[in-house]
Specification:
With 138 residues, the protein is mostly helical. It folds into two domains: 101 residues, no CATH class; 35 residues. Helices cover 83% and strands 0% of the residues. It is built from seven helices and no strands. Helix 1 runs antiparallel to helix 2 and helix 2 packs across helix 3. The longest helix has 24 residues. It is globular and about 60 Å long. The N and C termini lie far apart (60 Å).
Length: 138
Amino acid sequence: MTAQIVMTIILIGLTAGILSGLIGIGGGIILVPALVYFLSYNQHQAQGTSLGVLSFPVVLLAFLKYYFDLKKSETPVDFSIIGLLAIGFIIGGFFGSSLALKLDKEMLKKIFAVILFYTAFKMLGWDSAIYRFIKNIF
């Protein structure tokens, strides 16, 4: 591995870590596209690598920061919710990865892109704006 590749990987990880701590994203939204475009990974490799990173306690410090600060502000993180989400995530992750490995790489990339676009569309409120625009026309 060249020094340039090592630095690229570290910068991708740093960016994903900062954004994960800042707004709760990192794995799929940052790591997967970065691995595809900067390291020429295929979609399966990128998704598998992202899941591998998330398997380790890389977000532990960010979580602990949120946990202790929210506990002080009397809006604590609910561990029962975390546990239930984790159960669903583990089961869903197994079946989702099984399905992903059966899909063509290009189809998987398109599905990934559509989900990212849909998420951005909803978070920006564009769905409501379009609905209001159409409603005003009719």
